[in-house]
Amino acid sequence: MDRTGKISLRHAAGFVLVASLALAAGCGGSKTADPETQGKPAAPAGTAAPAAKSGAPGAGAPAATQPEALRDPGSVVATVDGRPITARQVYGLAGAYREQFDQRGIALAPQQELELHRMALQTLINTDLMARAAKAEGIKTDTKMIDGRIQADRARFKTEEEYRQALAAAGISMEQIRSDLDMQYLAEMWARAKTGSVKTDEATVRKVYDEHKNEFKKSDEAHVLQILVPTSPADTPAKREEARKRAEEAYAKAKAGEDFGKLAAKYSQAPNAAAGGDAGFIPQGTQLREFDQAAFSLPVGQVSPVFETQAGFNVIKILERRQGQPLSWAEVKDRLSEQITSNLKGQVLEGKIAELRAKAKVSITAPELEPRKQAAAAGAAGASAPSNP
């Protein structure tokens, strides 16, 4: 990830905490949950995460998936009681969401990209309303906390000049960063104040567990040996081809019966190379998509052909596969209680935000960023309207 990307992603990601509770509440928007960031033992130590498609419009997503309204970072795409929300803010937050999909190797279709931007806009609208409500109720900004976040960003750069150049390249000012962090903090404090008393009792949690006991089990696991020849988006075609040939050579020797562990020690550049490429037991669904598919479709004892992930070229061998076992009440209760409580808090907060939105004047000036139902209705109305003579 380049330094401009770090600035813009850090700036946008501050809204994710609020979004987890306030995502499109009361507006008819998408309520798709954010994916969890999953572990990636296939990636060697020190390998950078994929570049975030965030920051100023034009810095990441292909034009085909970038809504027309977001092409100008300074354009106003919505107003909340007259207060503007810009394309820069929407694009930045959508980039923070998108990176979570990227980290799992999930490619989004153009329509899904559009939904991501719609979702980001609704979150920004709700964040604005919650922050204003917080101010009205006397909640104060923690300036030291905001200063700390900004200083943490600055610390990633060798000099102050380098930092400011990165800000300029991303089209972000210090005032914008501070303003957005201020809103995020106030909105988060307001959300916590409105949901802090929401609890769930153990009897309710136990009832849910008993009624869905068969659904609570550990993931299936595969014991994997791995050879990884890493690549990065910055590699030249010649360097990528060299990496692919190295992996193909290792595969050919493994297929011919040579010891996989010795081959891993020679060819792999993953952290586990010295241990014969032993990645241990890997739970299903926790890896990059291509790695996960290979690990749980390859017959035990066989070696996979070379396959590519965002980490590089891989060859794996499955030593053993074991089925996930049921989880006991003791193993489930704390996490299940947190989940149920979180859902209840989300419902309470949704109602509170709906009250704020009912009193506010929200105007989306970019029709393509309207929530899906509203956008579809507007399109149908336009299609059915009689033409002027």
List the helices and strands and how they pair.
Blueprint lengths: L2 H11 L2 H7 L53 E5 L2 E4 H17 L6 H27 L6 H12 L5 H11 L3 H22 L6 H10 L9 E10 L6 H19 L4 H8 L10 E6 L5 H7 L11 E3 L2 E11 L6 H31 L2 E3 L7 H13 L5
Antiparallel strand pairs: 1-2, 1-7, 3-4, 3-6, 5-6
Helix pairs in contact: 1-3, 1-6, 2-7, 3-4, 4-7, 5-7, 8-12, 9-10
Question: How would you sum up this structure in a few lines?
Answer:
With about 400 residues, the chain is α+β, with helices and mostly antiparallel strands.
Write a structural description.
With 389 residues, the chain is α+β, with helices and mostly antiparallel strands. It has 2 domains: 3-201 and 336-384, no CATH class; 221-322, Roll (Chitinase A, domain 3). It has 13 helices and 7 strands. Strands 4-3-6-5 form a 4-stranded antiparallel β-sheet. A 3-stranded antiparallel β-sheet has the order 2-1-7. β1 (76-80) and β2 (83-86) form a beta hairpin. Residues 1-64 and 377-389 have low confidence and may be disordered.
